[in-house]
Design a protein that fits this description.
InterPro entries: WAK_GUB. Keywords: Membrane, Signal, Transmembrane, Transmembrane helix. It is found in: Membrane. It holds the Pfam family GUB_WAK_bind. It is a single-pass membrane protein. This protein has one domain. Strand 5 and strand 6 form a beta hairpin. The chain contains 5 helices and 15 strands. It is elongated, with a radius of gyration of 34 Å. The strands form 4 sheets. Strands 3-4-5-6-7-13-8 form a 7-stranded mixed β-sheet. A 4-stranded antiparallel β-sheet has the order 10-11-9-12, with helices on one face. It has a two-stranded antiparallel ribbon with strand order 1-2. The chain is α+β, with helices and mostly antiparallel strands. The structure holds 2-acetamido-2-deoxy-beta-D-glucopyranose (NAG) (7 copies). One 2-acetamido-2-deoxy-beta-D-glucopyranose (NAG) binds next to loops.
């Protein structure tokens, strides 16, 4: 009886000890940098004690401004919402209102955020400026109406335009043009055309919001697919079961296997039919022969 009591109390203290060790291993740290007063899990500030936040969500503090380096680009952090799991970023190249290209494209040209740590836009999926470089002046072409000249990048023989896309639409650049960069921006339902680069700049300066999710990152790193279920805030992510996208080569192999398999099956079926038909004929011939001999005998 005593030993039981003794062991259970020992186990109990061990559990309590483990509990405290656990708490110690995840200190409640909250750092601040300029306007961002509450940098806490999963975010951490460079130089925070190890164990603070998650190293995948590390910000640096430069001249009292929190900076996130992703995609690869450099962005000022204007706001972190722990409730909505969103973060507002402003490209360092646009923050002071100067003309230029984004420091790094957030999206691939097919419109996907290319970082497993950040998924989904806040309330405005797919609003962006495309920076388009052309070898001719297309300003007078009618379909170029919503191309706004980027003055600082347009030189003799090189014409750079910003094209607003408020509702992710397929964009096919003209023959003499190509998309050189993309900058996400807030959705402006009232505008499709920006008459001046100042108006473009204003939107770029306000930055954009993207979602972050540790759960989603872990899901992606585990080889599963994380999808944004709802674009309303707070964003809802779901981790889908094992999911592996087939590469083109794998797809081709599968198609080839199906075709070859089908041909073999067809061959086998034809073979069987031929054999069956032959057997039937042979049997009929045999039957005919026996009939004939029988008849002959009867006649005899
Ligand atoms: C963490 O720190 C914040 C403020 O720094 C405080 O409001 C909060 O209660 C703390 N949480 C825990 C679990 O100690
Ligand atoms: C900072 O964020 C943490 C985590 O979301 C929260 O628990 C805490 O209350 C916040 N503190 C302040 C001062 O906003
Ligand atoms: C961040 O956004 C929240 C909610 O929209 C707002 O209350 C807060 O003041 C903002 N913080 C900063 C630093 O802009
Ligand atoms: C804005 O910042 C860029 C570098 O990021 C600098 O070259 C430029 O002079 C700045 N412009 C203004 C108006 O401060
Ligand atoms: C391009 O053409 C438009 C209209 O013809 C003209 O107003 C504009 O100055 C031209 N742009 C450049 C950079 O030459
Ligand atoms: C721009 O190019 C045209 C023809 O290609 C040339 O005549 C003109 O001198 C150039 N202007 C400058 C400023 O280089
Ligand atoms: C340009 O504007 C027209 C109408 O203003 C719109 O139909 C078209 O989709 C726009 N093109 C792009 C690439 O946004």
């Amino acid at each position: 009886m005593r030993t039981v009591q003794y062991t259970s109390s020992l186990l109990y203290s061990l559990l309590i000890l483990l509990f405290f060790v656990q708490i110690q291993a995840q200190p409640n740290c909250s750092s601040s940098c300029g306007e961002i007063k509450n940098i806490s899990y999963p975010f951490r500030l460079k130089g925070d004690p190890s164990g603070c936040g998650d190293s995948d969500y590390e910000l640096s503090c430069v001249d009292n401004k929190a900076i996130l380096e992703i995609f690869p680009g450099r962005y000022y952090v204007h706001n972190i919402s722990y409730h909505d799991q969103t973060i507002r970023l402003v490209d360092v190249n646009f923050a002071n209102g100067s003309c230029g290209l984004p420091s790094g494209p957030v999206e691939t040209t097919d419109g996907f955020v290319r970082d497993v740590r950040f998924r989904g836009y806040g309330l405005n999926p797919g609003s962006r400026f495309r920076f388009v470089k052309c070898s001719t002046n297309i300003s007078s072409v009618p379909e170029a109406a919503n191309h706004t000249t980027v003055p600082c990048l347009t030189r003799n023989g090189t014409y750079v335009y910003a094209v607003y896309d408020g509702d992710y639409s397929y964009y096919e650049p003209r023959k003499s043009c190509s998309v050189i960069s993309l900058a996400p921006v807030d959705l402006r339902k009232d505008v499709t055309k920006f008459n001046s680069y100042e108006a473009v700049m204003e939107l770029l300066k306000a930055g954009f919001e993207i979602g972050w999710s540790v759960k989603c990152r872990d899901c992606s790193l585990a080889g599963k697919q994380c999808v944004v279920k709802s674009m309303e805030k707070p964003l809802i992510y779901i981790c889908e079961k094992e999911y592996k996208e087939l590469t083109r080569a794998e797809g081709n192999w599968i198609i080839a296997a199906i075709v070859v398999g089908g041909l073999i099956a067809l061959g086998v079926i034809i073979g069987i039919i031929v054999v069956v038909i032959r057997r039937c004929r042979r049997r009929r011939n045999a039957a005919d022969n026996t009939n004939k001999t029988l008849q002959n005998r009867i006649v005899a």
